[in-house]
UniProtKB/TrEMBL annotation:
Signal sequence interval, chain numbering: none
PROSITE patterns per UniProt: CUT, HOMEOBOX_1, HOMEOBOX_2
Full protein name: One cut domain family member
Keywords, alphabetical: Coiled coil, DNA-binding, Homeobox, Nucleus, Repeat, Transcription, Transcription regulation
Species this protein is from: Gouania willdenowi (Blunt-snouted clingfish)
Region Disordered: start-end pairs: 201-235, 255-326
The keyword Transmembrane is assigned to this record: no
Example of a GO MF term: RNA polymerase II transcription regulatory region sequence-specific DNA binding
Domain CUT intervals: 7-94
Amino acid sequence: HSGLSIQEMVAMSPELDTYAITKKVKEVLTDNNLGQRLFGETILGLTQGSVSDLLARPKPWHKLSLKGREPFVRMQLWLQDPHSVEKLMDMKRLEKKAYMKRRLSSLSDSHTVDTAFLGPDYVQGSLSPGQQHLKKPRVVLGPEEKEALKKAYQQKPYPSPKTIEELASQLNLKTSTVINWFHNYRSRIRRELFIEEIQSAGGVGPGSEGGSPSLRGSKSGEGDSCDGTESEGTVEARQGLGLGLEDHRGACKDQDMEAESEAGGSNNSPAQLDCTTSSLAGPGSSCGQGGLGLFSLTEASSSSSAPSTNIPAPGPARNPRDNNLRKKKAANLNNIIHRLEKAASKEDPSEWEF
DNA sequence: TACGAGTCAATACC
DNA sequence: GGTATTGACTCGTA
């Protein structure tokens, strides 16, 4: 695109609505029966798992590093390409053809080892079959171990090396496993909090970095997300973008939904974003957007107001299990937040209750 | 050196 | 078979 590298484009990109982008991508993929693996590998250069994660839990733009923004810029470009679906369909056909060809040749030569069973490394010739066995088996933590780790986390999210050692020996795990678990858990809790904070429509401006926004209960009262505060974004850049502003209003209007949201309720209407996402649909969109540029999505959501444009909807595919999971997570987070709030209100650490 | 961010890839789940 | 989850890893940064 315009001879710019993707990094340059990311650097120059205005704020994008990551939620709207992923929503649209999911739509296009399902509508055209295209898998995450194919999309990830050909468009984003990511694996299926990463794509799944990105699509299910997009971080708000302002929370992303340059590297983290890259897939969203790629998705945006892909959505703006009128032939995007065709191209991916072609790739799908080619893959199928190649697969059939491989199957045929492996069937015709009974002496040939079916590389499908040997993994990509072997296919690429980097590993011999013998070496396959050297691969580290994945550690799968049992429910009791997870429970114990979670309890330990609630007591100390940043355990000392000594605590880690103790945990590891008590649970019969390697210390590196315990360390990794804490890293991952912190990171994922943080990500869940981003989502929760967006969902509760409080909006996090750049100024709310000093702690969990949920703790502050600031909502948007400071004028950040609901007062139209401008950051780098210009009014001109918002033209024809109804997206951020409208959703924004919706988000502010729905502040009283927070309680329900925190309880894991699904209170976001996917329809809210219809017009939003249609701005991604390119020419022919019914939501009146004139001559949108490359990154036309959400200048509307200035950095201070971005989160509220990224309202994560539960999505139509949510099954009861997902909802339960969400409820559990929300409850767990609220529990943690509650304890942190209590702790924060007591000056003497000895009074902190965890 | 510890941490966060981002990602891979094995596994679980539907 | 496609998608979601999650332990492990790399890399950049303070």
